[in-house]
Design brief:
Helix content: over 70%
Strand content: under 5%
Radius of gyration: 18 Å
Low-confidence stretches: none
Distance between the termini: 32 Å
Order of helices and strands: HHHH
Mean pLDDT: 91
Oligomer: single chain
Largest sheet: none
Number of helices: 4
Number of strands: 0
Length: 69
């Protein structure tokens, strides 16, 4: 976001920024859906309570540890 804001402040055209965001989104979509475990980890990152005893277990335990102090 910071580099995009700097690029825009330097005088970039919205068309170029939209094209770059589209390409980055497409590559990200392919990367996340390339393997099942990557897809599962990404979904756990978005909502760790989906599978608290499976993929989201480590995230859940980390939040408990941080909350416990």
């Amino acid at each position: 976001m910071i580099s995009s804001a700097m690029y825009f402040a330097a005088g970039a055209k919205i068309k170029h920024m939209a094209f770059g965001a589209t390409i980055a989104g497409f590559i990200g979509y392919i990367a996340v859906n390339s393997k099942q475990y990557i897809h599962d980890r990404f979904l756990a990152f978005l909502d760790h309570s989906i599978d608290p005893m499976g993929v989201g277990y480590h995230i859940q335990q980390a939040l408990i540890a941080i909350g416990s102090g």
